[in-house]
TrEMBL record, chains A, C:
<dbReference type="Pfam" id="PF01180">
    <property type="entry name" value="DHO_dh"/>
</dbReference>
<feature type="binding site">
    <location>
        <position position="126"/>
    </location>
    <ligand>
        <name>FMN</name>
    </ligand>
</feature>
<feature type="binding site">
    <location>
        <position position="20"/>
    </location>
    <ligand>
        <name>FMN</name>
    </ligand>
</feature>
<dbReference type="InterPro" id="IPR050074">
    <property type="entry name" value="DHO_dehydrogenase"/>
</dbReference>
<dbReference type="InterPro" id="IPR033888">
    <property type="entry name" value="DHOD_1B"/>
</dbReference>
<dbReference type="InterPro" id="IPR005720">
    <property type="entry name" value="Dihydroorotate_DH_cat"/>
</dbReference>
<feature type="active site" description="Nucleophile">
    <location>
        <position position="129"/>
    </location>
</feature>
<feature type="binding site">
    <location>
        <begin position="265"/>
        <end position="266"/>
    </location>
    <ligand>
        <name>FMN</name>
    </ligand>
</feature>
<keyword id="KW-0285">Flavoprotein</keyword>
UniProtKB/TrEMBL annotation, chains B, D:
<feature type="domain" description="FAD-binding FR-type">
    <location>
        <begin position="2"/>
        <end position="101"/>
    </location>
</feature>
<dbReference type="InterPro" id="IPR019480">
    <property type="entry name" value="Dihydroorotate_DH_Fe-S-bd"/>
</dbReference>
<keyword id="KW-0479">Metal-binding</keyword>
<dbReference type="GO" id="GO:0046872">
    <property type="term" value="F:metal ion binding"/>
</dbReference>
<dbReference type="GO" id="GO:0051537">
    <property type="term" value="F:2 iron, 2 sulfur cluster binding"/>
</dbReference>
<dbReference type="InterPro" id="IPR037117">
    <property type="entry name" value="Dihydroorotate_DH_ele_sf"/>
</dbReference>
<dbReference type="Pfam" id="PF10418">
    <property type="entry name" value="DHODB_Fe-S_bind"/>
</dbReference>
<keyword id="KW-0249">Electron transport</keyword>
<keyword id="KW-0408">Iron</keyword>
Length: 310, 268, 310, 268
């Protein structure tokens, strides 16, 4: 059975990685997960300079989901490259670094710094973080700025570039087309939905940052729809699907909708072994249903389907 | 080392109004745990409630491999937990940095007089701490102060007396012990210059306590509560604002750098 | 204690109504709910001609939510006006009729037909239905078309007009501004998020229509955020808030974020008495916390709050 | 009239592999229910699982006010339900249009020979139907055909025999009765021209059955399953495609117009 996939130039031995920001730098989960069994490790959003992040409370639980407003707390690209990557490189698993910035130049500088760092297999460009004012989602809600960021990053790195899209837009396909046109090697979707929770007793928002990003099983139908629509419009660009994946069946929804690979995010918090359960469960499904190549499953649910009103 | 495991529930009973003690058979946890650490519990099999709930380790019997947790029902996770009378619990632990056990090597003398201060459900992890302190043979140098809203809601004080400690009690309504906040009792005790203070309780109590320790120049540790997702330092959600020796403020993570912090470093 | 509210000209004795499409024409729930205790009854989306709706399956359960693709099945405005309104009017509760159409002219004709029908207290203009191809969400994703629909309806009716916004847009505030500028008396938000669920065993979408609208507690944080943002930008226009309300505490999140009134939707399916539980719970909250006027609560959580990065 | 109520669970046991019978004390439900109707059950207090689950009424004792449901564990709602051994269940019911009881007035003669055909868990509501038919005194004119995957999974056949009915059984693997689909047994019986057929089972079986009845010119009713949200006709989700006498296709709602439909009107 062949479960290996090529995510825009990142070769993964199975289609399962971690969603940025939910798995730290991987090492935090080493006690629970044999990291070498992962298809890739996607690490926390990294910026040029270290960031403290937002004031607490940073999370709130919501029905089948959670809001987070971490605010891109991270040690900065220099320490990631110097201190963290050597440890991760030793694992021999492809590492995808999620990068963010306030300006085009920030993105370019972070990307340039990571080019050639041992172990880094690709970059995931976060243009969709809802929890920082500048950059983040600003770039991600406009096809023009999104393609500018993509080009800025592509022009300074030889690494495969995945662009991470925001679901908080009217026309996701237009965004996908724009960044694909600007040279993105793959797309990742979805980042969190913007949400607010109010503490009714204190009559204030729960989060220090007021708004946060909604993740977890609650958003899965929105995420599957995003993958479906983009895969339908752009069948050739590989998609890294995520949003509420807890089990292999959840992951298969994304793959059948058109994702080449999947990432487990919030699910890690609930079940630290979720990634490996997904890896095992996908293999089992393929065995039971007689699939030899994972690629046979990609987008399979779209075959012969037309909307009643199309 | 922390593990993900299914622990068998060997008992569950209500010990106070809305406060439950659940006993788990978890030998590896019992072996590894130190006071102040917590376990991270999955409450249900579906996705609401979604996140695990952090609950301190309340008592440990290393010989039998039994571990107890004591918790107050405040929302859906703890309500679910209180409904589990048998079966298995999906837990991770032990997690976090616990209380510093002052050994002879660390202090020059282990006989430094210690105060253990608990407010409300904050008493839960202190019982495990006192179990360990009882074992050190210096129990006579330890004094316990416990606060609660009223006599009925007072926790662990009988059990702590059985361990051989002297206990003073404060209640808001005076239905047991001193009427007023437990920090009033602390004020008195601070005049005797205790060598070290361990505390756990609601944030306002800990804030007052840290201020008092600062003024009195007494060192100590407090266990804080922050909202947690991962419990292992990966999600960066459980931040606690601390200042370092130079007064510079940064964030630390309650799940790995805490939940126990030096009383002097927490910024309230 | 005064819990009555004025929703853009619709006077409700309490701030609680039903979300269109989740309460039929009210009569279906009569066995369980004393309809006269409701602030208003908002009925199923009504179109010019009767509609059959979409093929089954029309719903799928998702974590803390559900997808629906009913497709605006309804008996048409004529039967609503002739057969259903007389029964509802007898209750003496304000009735809000949700209207939809394929063209501007459709909307105008439905609105004109309902003008002056006894018992109709207002119209809720659905420009955000994700489950029909034409009309619906098409009008709702563009500020220009949205204001055209608003104007078309306003110009033919003397009834208060609530415009129902879609959350599936990049800039909700721009939409709100556009329809408010075109004369909307109130806004209602949110309609469902577009989602897909895949049946992993059959490797096909669960819904006959493929995509559906996601509702229920899962979307509550997104809905509260929508109300918050629009109330912040346009504090004078009344908002009917909805999305995942199951209890009084949920409803209070919306009111504290800036909603003048609230609607219970999917919650009715889970607890047919949810509307009345919300009515009672809000009163109890006001008593416990010493509020005499419901208006004191509207937007209260926004006072003195600024985002850390503003 | 349908009511929303908390019904006490008075018993719960596994009667087959993954099939449970739960007994509820619900006198008003017992009074009002007719065979083929269902109750709508809230499975849990949190929002996952969210929607109620429709389950047919399996047996009723009007005297004692007890109502039984029989269900197969297939997902999280039914798994939750199988875990309830006591306490209270939040239910709505009775809901829907049940089977038509052919009385002497309706048919001219009540002694019209009837067939009751069940497949798999579809047997559940048929027991209640047979309880009522037994009460009419025409039991000897009723024949019961039951199908299942294997002997172990065969439901209600012993209980139905105790009611005094003659039962024929079909299993896929031949481990009990005839080897093959229950519709093979039906084919034989149709040669004897039964006056009316009641059926419940998986969609493919019902589809075949409806075709056979059509060809044989035998009237009957089938109980169908559609995904439901409200259960009361408000959400319009549970549509079943039917054709009227003129052949015109429309949608009807399984929760109020069904779940029992005339065999001839369902479009498969
Ligand atoms: C390190 C640590 C140790 C703890 N030890 C104990 C203990 O021994 N006994 C005990 O009764 N309680 C303890 N708590 C508090 C306990 O975690 C919360 O009461 C519990 O999570 C509430 O969950 P719920 O679902 O019942 O409430 P809900 O209000 O429904 O919970 C909603 C969300 O908020 C979080 N949350 C709610 N209250 C708190 C809180 N006080 N601290 C952190 N997160 C919270 C929950 O984890 C959940 O994610 C501890 C907290 C921490 C951080
Ligand atoms: C009128 C009616 C009467 C029924 N009577 C019985 C009975 O007596 N015994 C019995 O075992 N089952 C019966 N069913 C089927 C039963 O409702 C489903 O098996 C059950 O809802 C599955 O829920 P779950 O959470 O375990 O499964 P999940 O697959 O987790 O359910 C997910 C969603 O799909 C819906 N769903 C899943 N399967 C079905 C189905 N077959 N029909 C309708 N909706 C479904 C659920 O209600 C839920 O909304 C009946 C269905 C209907 C419509
Ligand atoms: C606590 C937390 C932190 C996150 N941090 C980042 C981040 O730094 N960069 C990023 O692109 N996405 C970040 N995300 C979004 C996730 O990578 C993912 O896109 C989203 O959570 C949806 O997946 P999930 O539902 O499986 O969690 C974060 C999500 C969470 C919950
Ligand atoms: C079954 C169903 C049918 C709906 N039909 C309509 C409709 O006809 N018109 C409309 O504007 N909204 C319709 N909605 C959307 C609801 O009115 C509401 O905006 C949405 O469900 C969010 O609220 P909730 O989470 O409380 O259900 C429908 C929702 C559901 C679940
Ligand atoms: S809870 Fe995730 S970092 Fe502490
Ligand atoms: S289930 Fe709502 S109409 Fe039938």
């Amino acid at each position: 059975m062949n479960t290996s996939v090529d995510l825009g130039g990142i070769v993964m031995k199975n289609p399962v990685t971690t969603a940025s920001g939910t798995f730290g730098f991987g090492l935090e989960y080493q006690t629970y997960v044999d990291l070498q069994r992962l298809g890739a490790i996607t690490v926390k959003g990294t910026t040029l300079k270290p960031r403290q992040g937002n004031p607490p409370p940073r999370i709130a639980e919501t029905p089948s989901g959670m809001l987070n407003a971490i605010g891109l707390q991270n040690p900065g690209v220099e320490r990631v490259a110097e201190e963290i990557m050597p440890q991760l490189a030793a694992l021999g698993v492809p590492v995808i670094i999620n990068i963010a910035g306030d300006t085009l130049e920030d993105y370019a500088q972070v990307a340039r710094r990571l080019d050639g760092v041992t172990g880094v297999a690709g970059l995931e460009v976060n243009i969709s973080c809802p929890n920082v004012k500048k950059g983040g989602i600003q770039f991600g809600s406009n096809p023009v700025t999104a393609s500018e960021v993509t080009r800025a990053v592509k022009s300074v790195t030889g690494l495969p570039v995945i662009v991470k899209l925001s679901p908080n837009v009217t026309d996701l396909v237009a965004m996908a087309e724009a960044v694909a046109g600007a040279g993105a090697d793959a797309l990742s979707m979805i980042n969190t939905l913007v949400g607010i929770a109010i503490d009714v007793d204190r009559r204030r928002p729960v989060l220090g940052n007021i708004t946060g990003g909604l993740s977890g099983p609650a958003i899965r139908p929105v995420a599957v729809r995003a993958v479906w629509q983009v895969h339908r419009a752009l069948p050739l660009i590989p998609i890294l699907g995520m949003g509420g994946i807890m089990t292999a069946r959840d992951a298969l929804e994304f793959i059948l909708a058109g994702a080449t690979a999947v990432a487990v995010g919030t699910g890690n918090f609930v079940n630290p072994r979720a990634t490996l359960d997904v890896v095992d469960g996908i293999e089992q499904y393929m065995k039971e249903h007689g699939f030899n190549e994972i690629s046979e499953l990609v987008g399979l649910a779209q075959r012969d389907t037309t909307r009643s009103d199309e | 080392m922390s593990q993900l495991m299914m622990a068998e529930i060997t008992g569950c009973q209500e010990t106070g109004p809305g406060v439950w003690v659940t006993e788990l058979l978890a030998p590896s946890l019992a072996q590894a745990a130190v006071p102040g650490q917590f376990i991270h519990i999955r409450c249900g099999e579906d996705s609401d409630p979604l996140l695990r709930r952090p609950i301190s380790i309340h008592a440990v019997c290393r010989q039998s491999g039994l571990v107890k947790i004591m918790f107050q029902v405040v929302g859906k996770g703890t309500a679910w937990l209180a409904g589990r009378r048998d079966g298995w619990l999906d837990i991770m632990g032990p997690l976090g940095r616990g209380f510093t056990m002052l050994t002879a090597e660390k202090t020059g003398t282990a006989a430094v007089p210690r105060l253990v201060v608990g407010g409300g459900i904050g008493a839960a992890p202190l019982y495990f701490l006192l179990q360990e302190l009882a074992g050190t043979g210096y129990a006579e140098h330890v004094k316990v102060l416990l606060g609660a809203r009223n006599a009925e809601q007072l926790l662990i004080h009988n059990a702590v007396k059985l361990l051989g400690f002297s206990v003073s009690v404060a209640t808001d309504d005076g239905s047991a012990g001193y009427q007023g906040p437990v920090t009033d009792l602390l004020a008195e005790e601070l005049q005797c210059k205790p060598g070290y203070v361990y505390a756990c309780g609601p944030a306002p109590m800990l804030k007052t306590l840290c201020g008092m320790l600062h003024n009195a120049g007494v060192p100590g540790e407090v266990s804080v509560e922050e909202r947690m997702a991962c419990g292992v330092g990966a999600c960066l959600s459980c931040v606690c604002r601390v200042k370092d020796a130079g007064g510079l403020e940064t964030f630390r993570h309650a799940c790995v750098d805490g939940p126990v912090f030096a009383a002097g470093e927490v910024v309230w």
